[in-house]
Amino acid sequence: KKSEQELKDEEMELFTKYYMEWKGGKKSDNISYANIPRFYYRLPAEDEILLQKLREESRAVFLQRKSRELLDNEELQNLWFLLDKHQTSPMIGDEAMINYENFLKVGEKAGPKCKQFFTAKIFAKLLHNDPYGRISIMQFFNYVMRKG
Questions:
Q1: CA–CA distance from 37 to each of 31, 41, 49, 126 (Å)?
Q2: How confident is the model at residue 35 (pLDDT cuts 50, 70, 90)?
């Protein structure tokens, strides 16, 4: 029979073994851990000038790329003109509506920057209890202005 001290030592040994495996002290046999990409990079310190400059430049390039994806005023005006031109009657009060077929036609004519907004998913998201299966042109345009 083991003494109480031997039992505590054995328990501590097992605990340490399992803890180290869980913590990563012992390399796991699972290969998928090697494929997990790194998602956190520490911010450069004040004395790491080159890393700070690299971070600033990469952020500037990212923001420039994102701003090129945004619709400018002329493109928004063109989109509104196309939506208004392809509206589907009857109007509900003074609200202009568009059906899915005309929605797709506008999507083809609106240009490459607008293409991301002319999907079935977005149409369905904006579709409310219209008996003709249409969406509000104003609601769609506001959606584009908020998201784009």
A1: 13, 11, 26, 36
A2: confident
Could you give the strand order of the β-sheet that contains 95-99, starting from the edge strand earlier in sequence? 88-92, 95-99, 134-136
Please check whether residue 48 is in contact with residue 56, taking contact to mean a CB–CB distance below 8 angstroms. no
Nearest to 114 by CA among 72, 64, 68, 71: 71
- Contact (Cβ atoms closer than 8 angstroms) between residue 41 and residue 52: no
93-97 contacts at long range (C-beta below 8 A, 24 or more positions apart): 95/136, 95/137, 95/138, 96/136, 96/137, 96/138, 97/130, 97/132, 97/134, 97/135, 97/136, 97/137
Predicted confidence at residue 25, as pLDDT, reads: 58
CATH number of 73-147: 1.10.238
The token pair that represents 132 in the structure block: 């003709």
| SS3 category, 111 | coil
Task: Give the β-pairing of 88-92 and 134-136.
Answer: unpaired
| Alpha-carbon distances, residue 133 vs 32, 49, 88 (angstroms) | 47, 58, 10
Q: In angstroms, what is the C-alpha Rg of the chain? A: 29
